[in-house]
Amino acid sequence: MSLTKEKVRLRGTDSAKIIRVIETKALAGSGTPEDPHYIKVQYWDMDGRLLAENAAFIQEAARQADD
């Protein structure tokens, strides 16, 4: 059975809690068009295991500001 938009009903959040994680941010990339600068954000548990990461590209934001 395939789900369509008409059959899917969003319920909202089933659960939420506050947890302790370590957030790190580091500038990465060489700054060339092929390898632009970006901020790498990583989230680690208290035992040093990587949980998630996100990279926000600085140059893309700068280009949008110039437009």
Blueprint (SSEs and pairs):
Elements: E1 22-28, E2 38-44, E3 50-57, H1 58-66
Antiparallel strand pairs: 1-2, 2-3
Structure description:
By secondary structure, the chain is of the alpha+beta class. The protein has a domain at 22-66. It is 13% helix and 33% strand. It has 1 helix and 3 strands. The protein has one helix spanning 58-66; strands at 22-28, 38-44, 50-57. Strands 1-2-3 form a 3-stranded antiparallel β-sheet. Strand 2 and strand 3 form a beta hairpin. It is flat. It starts with 21 loop residues before the first strand and ends with a helix.
Short note summarizing the structure:
With 67 residues, the chain is of the alpha+beta class. Helices cover 13% and strands 33% of the residues. The protein contains one helix and three strands, in the order βββα.
Helix content: 10-25%
Tally of DSSP β-strands: 3
Q: Rough shape? A: flat
Largest sheet descriptor: 3 strands, antiparallel
Spatial strand arrangement across the major sheet: 1-2-3
- C-alpha Rg (nearest Å): 19 Å
Measure the end-to-end span.
46 Å
- Average of pLDDT: 82
What fraction strand?
25-35%
**Structural class per helix/strand content?**
alpha+beta
Number of helices: 1
Low-confidence segments, ≥5 residues, pLDDT <50? none
What is the N-to-C succession of helices and strands? EEEH
